[in-house]
Amino acid sequence: MRTHVNSVGLLVVSDPVLNFSYPAHIPRECIDALPSLPGIYIFRDASGKPIYIGKSVNIRTRVLSHMRTAEEMQMLAKSATIDFERTGGEIGALLRESELVKKHQPVFNSKLRRLREMCSISMAGEVPEIVFARDVDFALAEQLYGLFGSKKAAIETLRDVVHVRGLCTVATGLEKGTPGRPCFARQVARCKGACTGEESAADHAARVRLALEPLRVTRWPFAGAVAIVEQSAGLLQRAIVDRWCYLGVDKPRAASASFDIDVYNILVRPLQSGALRIEEL
């Protein structure tokens, strides 16, 4: 809802819905072909380039909802055609959408973009360490906590945890200290004395791990690749995944598995709950 003052000083309310018109320039056959089934859909510009990629358990209903949304007028105005791709179910649609968005980087997709720098907090030792996906296999590493798009974000999260849980800023590497000298948190009675030797390094590290536990990154729970089996209206698909990396449908593409944060976020809870039909390969 927008407002402005007109030439005679009256306040005018401008409702985008009132200015919206159905995008008649998109061929009707594109709409008629859309199935009421799971899959992904692609809005393309006049050159055929994807400008928006989405997914739904009901492709037809979701695409029509875009066309009735005034706030998406800009995207619709640039769209020339719409095509779709069926999947065996919701998980297959989520994985395929993630793959295509990262591949094509559509201008109207604000999410699922590939992170330039992914890092995590490691507690392999007694002091938290920021580690990067380029150096550590996040799918197989133990004692990783949180997935972050930057080192700054990881440090800010660690700082918040340290403050809330009464941990030592020196023992967690957030503050440079002098042996035997209390950190600032100890001086205000918010630290148990890991900086002064009053709390052992092992005990403090155990408290750090406990505080970070809600952020624990789940290790890939299988010995190798698995197929996630879904079926919809006669279409049976097996989405191949290995080490939190989507490798394609039915016959995996020849590629080394590399941890993908979007695949991890899509699959970690359904796998933990046992909601998926899995075939180990």
Automatic annotation (TrEMBL):
GO CC term, one of those recorded: excinuclease repair complex
GO molecular function: endonuclease activity; hydrolase activity
One of the protein's GO biological processes: SOS response
Keyword Nuclease in annotation: yes
InterPro entries cross-referenced by the UniProt entry: GIY-YIG_endonuc, GIY-YIG_endonuc_sf, GIY-YIG_UvrC_Cho, UvrABC_protein_C
PROSITE patterns membership: GIY_YIG
Location of the GIY-YIG domain: 36-110
Entry keyword DNA repair: yes
Name assigned to this protein: Excinuclease cho
Organismal lineage: Bacteria, Pseudomonadati, Pseudomonadota, Betaproteobacteria, Burkholderiales
